[in-house]
Design brief:
The structure holds three protein chains of three kinds. Chain A is mostly helical. Chain A has helices at about 15-45, 60-65, 70-95, 95-125, 135-165, 170, 175-205. Chain A is built from seven helices and no strands. Chain B has a two-stranded antiparallel ribbon. In chain B, helix 15 runs antiparallel to helix 17. Chain B is globular, with a radius of gyration of 24 Å. Chain B starts with 9 loop residues before the first helix and ends in a 40-residue tail after the last helix. The chains are: A mainly alpha, B mainly alpha, C mainly alpha. The interface between B and C is medium-sized, with 17 and 15 residues.
Chain lengths: ~210, ~575, ~100
């Protein structure tokens, strides 16, 4: 017996299985980042000043202000990747495989660009002595953006799979494949959404 | 028509199976082994408490070897450093490696698809992945015993600052927890989607067996409550590895030296994030058990459960409220009056659905034709045990008596009543009940009754005196069992009694183990009775024993009735299957 | 599905993309503006988070198709957001309600 509702929707819920599955996963991710944000709220409101001054007598504030353009650029890159991601799904709905590959490829490139910029940001801060152990802000900065970055890496791995070996399912089960891309897209948009909140919280509200 | 196209290799069929029944059995065996291990840790701890600083008999050499490997001195006794390790790991293993994988991973996985008429779980490959991630988490936890300094030793609650400055075992604990939490998340997403999407035609929400409802609520708790602990785990890892101090206040001095960390942290932050999970977690421990009890009671009273709707609304409300009570574990942290009032109120409110559920079970017995077989004996024994557990929770949920009782043996007595005779009796009831479905063979009733009788006596022998010791003020987590405190002296003699009860409880499991082995080795009948308990739910009425592999059903069952149509007036037999027209 | 059926989807995505870019520019500009010195941080936080919430809503409603999603998904998310609220704010309220201040 086949497992029903993998592609066709169940009548009373209106969903196919993996659509419900991914939203439940995203609900858990909301709680995960919620835990991270609640720590930010508690520790920031308890701090005498923000960003705090470390043992070396400095706060990261002026370096932070210098990196606002980079973070803004990254924000735009991620938003763009969200658009190309949903366009990749649209292309499959339109049965256009080469457009799908173009949009998906762009999404992956955007994600990599994001990580590269992040790498430069991290090295710059670390080079200046602003490591996680420096003060509470730096601890939160690295942990929050680090976990977000891990989610980006995970996303790249999955997107690369659907760009490469996974694309064979388009030939055998095109509808199921389209659904999978919709699901991956939902994950990707969520990662973008988290950054939309991280960006002002970490870079702008100081 | 079975769709076994090709012969599956041994590896695909038994080790890397995607069949929910095989995965359920994998979870079951692994979890039972961990339960045994966690139980053994406790038996050694109880030796130390009854006969402080004396060498452990038989296993003294092994304890000495392990202690010295960890860097502690021992003459075969359990030194206090190793006692702390055993205590922290006993709790961790029982909860995260034992009970939850058993009640959710084993029972949930095996039974939910069968009870709802589905061919498998919604995501079979994800199901297999969640088992192996659990397995890896378990290996990490076990390996940590062999590190210098031993495994984690800051309690299963891992409170900072102690946990942050503790030995390497704590880092392994955190890594292990990341794997276990991930496994849990994947598994519970699978269960929810399966229940929502794969119910057989005609199986409406209010026709679901209560067991399925309890698994659904449990899975929602796991999906939404675990992630904050995962976040906290990452923070603690950062504190331990990268010298941040999310949980350490500024200016903390350890061993005479100020710590070189980022500063500005809060130990209470850990407690909030930890208990945000850990309170719902205790309902994760008990709800599946309640589901088992419901099935066994309905079946062995030969009448429908009393108050099915009340049970469903109560369990859903209970799940929701469980997110609102966590700070009753934190009454002694200096919280303000507003917070205290809020959490006491929510805690009192949450006792209501529990009482409703227990009352419905008791009312279900009234007027029933009760069959006193082994599953039913465990279910009947469960009722007063869970009752004591629940009632002893009340003074802990009110902040004033909690001042006296917090961190004493009263707490340990309370929660063990709910998880030891609570959860474990439900698990035993389930094993005796569903064993014939899984294997086609019934377990022996005589051995079962002996197992029940002595387990019941010795469970009470261990945990009732804890309530007494706690009321006398004996603190928990003391390696010497309270010996060095004046106020403990009056109740110290109970330690020996409790320890003997614990070891005798172990002996009482021997009939159970013999029963399982003998029954497994026994030859199966040519055509085993698929429904020996004459039950109404789909797993009994529409599948063979054991159920056929890959697909479970010859054809999709259609449901026409509720789950507990026993003794329907006018019917020729005293049970009417859900799938009967 | 033909090319034409998706056209309104595509024009919508383009529109939302532009709004998101505008939102990003707004939020960066706002952070540089001088607020009333007393309330500068509170004001900045409020404006920043409001714009972020609007941007987040646009992504969720349009790219994630939440606007047209089924009821059960809405209920699950509502439940999640309720618990999220508890998680975010109870520890903070706790601090404000402390018995003694260290």
């Amino acid at each position: 017996m086949e497992i029903p509702y993998n592609v066709e929707v169940r009548e009373d819920t209106g969903l196919y299985n993996s659509k419900l599955g991914i939203w439940l996963f995203l609900a858990s991710e909301i709680m995960l980042f919620g835990g991270l944000f609640s720590a930010y709220i508690l520790l920031r409101t308890g701090a005498p000043m923000w960003p705090p001054i470390g043992a070396d007598g400095h706060s990261v504030l002026h370096i932070l202000k210098d990196t606002v353009p980079h973070a803004t650029f990254n924000t735009v890159v991620l938003i763009l990747s969200s658009v190309t991601m949903v366009m990749a799904w649209v292309s499959l709905k339109q049965k256009d495989l080469s457009k799908y590959k173009l949009y998906l490829g762009t999404t992956i490139v955007c994600a990599i660009i994001f990580l590269v910029v992040k790498y430069f940001e991290y090295s710059h801060k670390i080079h200046e002595g602003f490591v996680p152990a420096h003060d509470t802000y730096m601890a939160l900065y690295f942990t929050l953006t680090g976990l977000h970055g891990l989610h980006i890496i995970g996303g790249i791995v999955v997107l690369a799979y659907f760009f490469g070996p996974g694309i064979n399912m388009w030939v055998s089960e095109p509808e199921r494949f389209t659904n999978r891309i919709e699901i991956v897209g939902l994950y990707w948009h969520f990662v973008d959404l988290v950054w939309i909140f991280l960006f002002p919280i970490l870079y702008l509200l100081n | 028509m079975s769709d076994s196209h090709h012969e599956e290799s041994f590896w695909r069929k038994y080790i890397f199976s995607t069949d929910h029944k095989t995965i359920g059995i994998q979870y079951g065996i692994t979890a039972l082994l961990f339960l045994f291990f966690g139980f053994s840790l406790m038996m050694i701890m109880r030796w130390q408490m009854a006969f402080p600083d004396q060498a452990v008999p038989i296993f003294g050499g092994l304890i000495k070897w392990l202690a010295e490997l960890n860097g502690f001195a021992s003459v075969g006794n359990l030194p206090s450093d190793l006692y702390n390790v055993f205590g922290a790991m006993h709790g961790t293993i029982m909860i995260f490696l034992g009970v939850v994988p058993l009640v959710v991973g084993a029972f949930g996985n095996y039974l939910v698809p069968l009870q709802i008429g589905a061919p498998d779980m919604a995501f079979p490959k994800l199901n297999m992945a969640s088992y192996w991630v659990y397995f890896i988490g378990g290996v990490i936890m076990l390996v940590s015993f062999f590190l210098p300094g031993g495994a984690a030793n800051s309690g299963w609650t891992s409170y900072p600052p102690l946990s942050v400055i503790a030995t390497t075992g704590q880092t392994f604990w955190l890594l292990g927890m990341v794997f276990l939490i991930t496994s849990s998340l994947l598994g519970s997403i699978n269960i929810i989607v399966t229940i929502v999407q794969l119910r057989a035609p005609g199986l409406t929400w209010m026709r679901l067996p209560f067991f399925v409802w309890s698994q659904l609520v449990t899975s929602f708790l796991l999906v939404l409550a675990f992630p904050p602990l995962e976040a906290a785990g990452f923070f603690q890892l950062m504190d331990r590895v990268f010298d941040t101090s999310f949980f350490l206040p500024s200016g903390l001095v350890v061993g005479g030296e100020a710590l070189n960390v980022s500063g500005g942290g809060s130990p209470l932050l850990w407690q909030h994030l930890f208990w945000f999970l850990a309170h719902p977690e205790v309902y994760v421990l008990i709800l599946p058990g309640m589901g088992v009890i419901a099935e066994v009671i309905a079946n062995n009273t030969r009448k429908p459960l009393w108050g099915y709707k009340s049970l469903v609304y109560s369990v859903v409300f209970l799940g929701f409220m469980s997110f609102l009570v966590w700070a009753h574990h934190m009454f002694m942290t200096g919280m303000g009056q507003g917070m205290s009032i809020f959490f006491q109120t929510t805690t009192m409110i949450i006792s209501v659905p529990s009482v409703i559920i227990l009352s419905c079970f008791m009312l279900s017995l009234w007027g029933g034709s009760i069959r006193f077989n082994t599953p039913m004996l465990f279910a009947l024994g469960w009722i007063p045990m869970f009752g004591i557990g629940g009632l002893t929770g009340l003074p802990l949920g009110l902040s004033t008596p909690d001042i006296h009782l917090h961190d004493t043996y009263y707490v340990i007595g309370h929660f063990h009543y709910v998880v030891a005779p609570g959860t474990i009796f439900a698990i035993f009831a389930g094993i005796y009940y569903w064993f014939p479905k899984m294997t086609g063979k019934m377990l022996d009733e005589v051995l079962g009754k002996i197992h029940f009788f002595f387990s019941f006596i010795f469970m009470n022998g261990i945990f009732w005196p804890m309530l007494i010791q706690g009321l006398a003020g004996v603190s928990r987590r003391l390696a010497d069992g309270g010996e060095s405190y004046a106020h403990s002296q009056g109740t110290l003699h109970l330690n020996e009694f409790m320890s003997y009860s614990a070891w005798l409880l172990a002996v009482a499991q021997i009939p159970f183990i013999i029963n399982i082995i003998r029954t497994l080795l026994r030859k199966k009948d040519a055509e085993p009775d698929p429904n020996p308990w004459q039950a109404t739910t789909i797993e009994w009425t529409d599948t063979t024993s054991p159920p056929m592999g890959h697909g479970n059903f010859e054809k999709v069952p259609t449901v026409h009735r509720g789950p507990y149509e026993y003794s329907v007036p006018g019917d020729s037999s005293d049970f009417t299957p859900q799938t009967k027209n | 599905m033909s090319r034409n059926d998706m056209t309104h989807h595509i024009s919508n995505y383009r529109k939302i993309f532009v709004y998101l870019l505008i939102g990003t520019v707004l939020t960066v500009t706002a952070s540089y503006l001088e607020f009333n010195v007393q309330n500068s941080i509170a004001g900045a936080v409020f404006v920043g988070l409001t714009i972020a919430t609007v941007k987040g809503y646009l992504v969720a409603a349009n790219f994630m198709h939440l606007n047209s999603e089924k009821k059960i998904i809405h209920w699950i998310l509502l439940l999640t957001v309720f618990f999220l609220g508890l998680l975010l704010f109870i520890p903070l309220l706790w601090d404000l309600n402390l018995m003694s201040h260290y």
